[in-house]
Recover the amino acids of this structure.
């Protein structure tokens, strides 16, 4: 039996919706694990990444840790995929890009409604935020982009099965239209 | 100073409505008038025009936002825009702008706090053979030197009205260097028109057909066919439009034709009107050439007095034709014929879907002939002297001559007319170009040629050109041209279709990344891919030709990109560590984890 394809996933600045959508493939996950084994992913709770064939990234790049994780994935994965609107375009979190970082932090930690003990956190354990939120292809090279907020389970299923079968990836129209 | 009062603004608008007309299609002309009078379009003018022309406020504001020469906030009393074509840059416009800004004690792209003066850049103003050039309150100043800039700073500082500035500053030369078939004789006594009236329309159309004349704006559609389509359209109004938008960077022949050959151009339009049965025509004059307006109006008035225009032309009952000059307001896209028609109708210059072509449904959805200035000029002579006369020069598929606008690195920039079939090297020799590295023909949207191409000929079947020749000698870095054109197309996209609006910006960003020495081989691949998508997917020709300069130079001058690359692999599109600067300052941190190292982990292959 050939060695299984190793897959890692991560959620950067996202909402985990794309991971939830992946889980929405339901019982097909049993077929999936016949073909793949999971490395670092929130699904296995493995915290460090080994050499992988495929990396799936949800979410955009908003802080120093996102950059670090993304670079590690690029370093260890043969193929890297931007999954969902935030990874592809930055998505909802980029709404903060029209304000300065200072204004965002002030609103959240200093002057916003219902704040007790105001003050912007300065603990070195907390990753620093980037001035703006970026799509992942602005930080590393990306091989595939799957749009959607989130991409449906069927879309992800089509992508994974066709990729694993070594086929050119072609989505039925219903899987990539969103209105 | 205090701005204009509301009654003053309303008074001006009322007067303008009386003079220019009250139809919605007059909106743009009113806005240009208001802008000229007050230096901006105040809210009271927006309200007043919206109410009296029966258009929405949003339409008025959209027009102001669209056209670069209309402003919704006050500009300085002296509104100075430096032409920023690559030819202006080669002549040192950036240095002169910096010099003027320094002398005026302000930045190069702002309005001075006292409201006296605004500085900025604008797309090519069509003075490439006598640059660097600028526009001041819409009037062209040419041949800028540090001395001239010094003096301008003084005049602005003293608040001297433009009418009292030295006249030589506003002098625009024709620089006619080589006259051929069309330019050798500017004189007309209406002979073509007389012949048409004497012999009738059919022989004129036959001569035009025989001549093989093709449109001179670039696309090269057969003129006789276009006029025939319009002539055969169902009954009703039709229109003749002379496209004098000439926005293509590096092109300035139409300016010269309208300066010194305006009678022939108008004669061509009038002949066209007779052929197609039009009673009204327009010259769509780019805003940069607004200084030509009094001249054109006086030629129109004289022709009316001579019976060559107006009612019963040359005494022939029923041969009525009137021409109005419409001004543009700084929008390259309006050179595209459907965008031009939208603009003539007073709206933003957003292109229409073709088909139907304007010749079927153009101005006010009526059959409309839109031709280039040079095409009308040629048509007038063809009707006068015959189709065979014109055919006597040129090649099989390209009859007659082509008028070229030559600029850049040569001893004698200016206007050159050659028979079609002339090789490129002949033009370069005649204009005194030496050590030529590259030639950009047909403007920013055209083709980049290297010396290997210089034996090719000017003709629709080989090098089709709208007439712009920008020459670069070996001292130039061709990447400067790429940077200039990429910014130009990102700015001039009308914004209607995504491939052009977004694609143009993506190309611009990537070119800037290359310029900053931050790009990788991957980015060059992206340039090619985005360029290929734009060529196929944009709505009109502006977008599909916008990546030409990049795709051409990637092939022909790969080294201008390669030598700027930071890595063969991939580089981020922004400075990662720099992007943490604000957060570091806010948190007061400078520990190791408050920084992002420059080099990411190396890929496994590289470690071997």
């Amino acid at each position: 039996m050939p060695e299984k394809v190793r897959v890692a996933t991560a959620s950067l600045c996202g909402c985990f919706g794309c991971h939830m959508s992946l889980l929405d493939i339901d019982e097909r996950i049993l077929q999936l694990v016949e073909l793949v084994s999971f490395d670092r992913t929130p699904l296995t709770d493995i915290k460090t990444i080994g050499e992988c064939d495929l990396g799936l990234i949800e979410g955009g790049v908003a802080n120093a840790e996102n950059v670090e994780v993304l670079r590690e994935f690029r370093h260890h994965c043969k193929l890297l995929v931007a999954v969902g609107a935030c990874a592809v375009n930055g998505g909802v979190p980029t709404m903060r890009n029209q304000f300065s970082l200072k204004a965002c932090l002030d609103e959240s930690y200093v002057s916003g409604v219902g704040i007790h003990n105001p003050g912007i956190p300065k603990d070195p354990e907390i990753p620093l935020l980037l001035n703006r939120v970026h799509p992942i292809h602005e930080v590393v090279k990306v091989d595939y982009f799957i749009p959607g907020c989130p991409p449906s389970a069927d879309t992800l299923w089509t992508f994974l099965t066709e990729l694993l079968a070594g086929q050119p990836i072609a989505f039925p129209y219903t899987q990539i239209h969103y209105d | 100073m205090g701005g204009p009062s509301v009654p003053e603004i309303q008074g001006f608008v009322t007067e303008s409505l009386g003079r220019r007309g009250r139809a919605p299609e007059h909106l743009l002309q009113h806005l240009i008038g208001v802008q000229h009078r007050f230096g901006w379009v105040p809210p009271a003018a927006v309200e007043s025009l919206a109410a009296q022309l029966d258009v929405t406020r949003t339409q008025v504001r959209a027009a102001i936002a669209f056209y670069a020469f209309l402003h919704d906030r006050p500009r300085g009393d002296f509104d100075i825009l430096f032409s920023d074509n690559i030819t202006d840059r080669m002549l040192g416009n950036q240095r002169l702008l910096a010099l003027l800004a320094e002398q005026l004690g302000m930045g190069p792209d702002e309005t001075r706090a006292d409201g006296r003066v605004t500085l900025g850049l604008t797309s090519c103003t069509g003075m490439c053979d006598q640059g660097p050039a600028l526009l001041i309150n819409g009037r062209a100043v040419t041949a800028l030197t540090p001395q001239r800039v010094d003096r301008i700073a003084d005049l602005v500082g003293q608040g001297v009205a433009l009418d009292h500035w030295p006249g030589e500053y506003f002098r625009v030369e024709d620089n006619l260097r080589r006259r051929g078939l069309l330019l050798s004789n500017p004189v007309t006594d209406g002979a073509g028109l007389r012949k048409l009236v004497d012999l009738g329309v059919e022989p004129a159309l036959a001569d035009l057909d025989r001549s093989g004349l093709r449109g001179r704006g670039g696309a090269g559609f057969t003129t006789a066919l276009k006029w025939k389509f319009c002539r055969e359209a169902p009954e009703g109004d039709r229109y003749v439009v002379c496209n004098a938008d000439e926005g293509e960077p590096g092109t300035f022949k139409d300016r010269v034709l309208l300066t010194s050959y305006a009678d022939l151009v108008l004669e061509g339009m009038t002949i066209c009107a007779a052929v197609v049965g039009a009673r009204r025509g327009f010259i769509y004059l780019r805003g940069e050439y607004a200084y030509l307006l009094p001249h054109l109006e006086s030629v129109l008035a004289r022709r009316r007095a001579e019976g060559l225009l107006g009612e019963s032309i040359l005494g022939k009952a029923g041969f009525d034709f009137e021409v109005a000059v419409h001004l543009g307001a700084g929008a390259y896209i309006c050179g595209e014929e459907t965008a031009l028609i939208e603009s003539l109708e007073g709206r933003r210059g957003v292109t229409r879907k073709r088909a139907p072509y304007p010749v079927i449904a153009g101005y006010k959805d009526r059959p409309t002939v839109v031709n280039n200035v040079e095409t009308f000029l040629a048509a007038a002579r063809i009707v006068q002297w015959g189709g065979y006369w014109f055919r006597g020069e040129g090649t099989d598929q390209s009859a007659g001559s082509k008028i070229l606008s030559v600029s850049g690195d040569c001893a004698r920039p200016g206007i050159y007319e050659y028979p079609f079939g002339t090789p490129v090297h002949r033009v370069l020799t005649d204009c005194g170009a030496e050590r030529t590295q590259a030639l950009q023909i047909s403007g920013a949207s055209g083709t980049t040629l290297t010396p290997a191409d210089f034996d090719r000929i000017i003709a629709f079947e080989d090098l089709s050109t709208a007439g712009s020749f920008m020459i670069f000698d070996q001292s130039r870095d061709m990447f400067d041209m790429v940077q200039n054109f990429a910014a130009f197309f990102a700015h001039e996209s009308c914004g209607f279709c995504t491939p052009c609006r977004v694609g143009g910006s993506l190309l611009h960003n990537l070119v800037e990344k290359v310029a900053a020495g931050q790009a990788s081989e991957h980015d060059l691949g992206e340039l090619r891919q985005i360029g290929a998508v734009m060529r196929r997917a944009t709505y009109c020709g502006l977008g599909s030709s916008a990546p030409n300069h990049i795709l051409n130079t990637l092939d022909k001058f790969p080294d201008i990109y390669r030598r700027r690359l930071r890595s063969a692999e991939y580089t981020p599109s922004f400075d990662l560590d720099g992007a943490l600067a604000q957060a570091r300052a806010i948190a007061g941190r400078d520990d190791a984890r408050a920084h992002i190292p420059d080099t990411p982990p190396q890929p496994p292959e590289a470690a071997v």
Q: What stands out?
A: DSSP finds 25 helices and 14 strands in chain B.
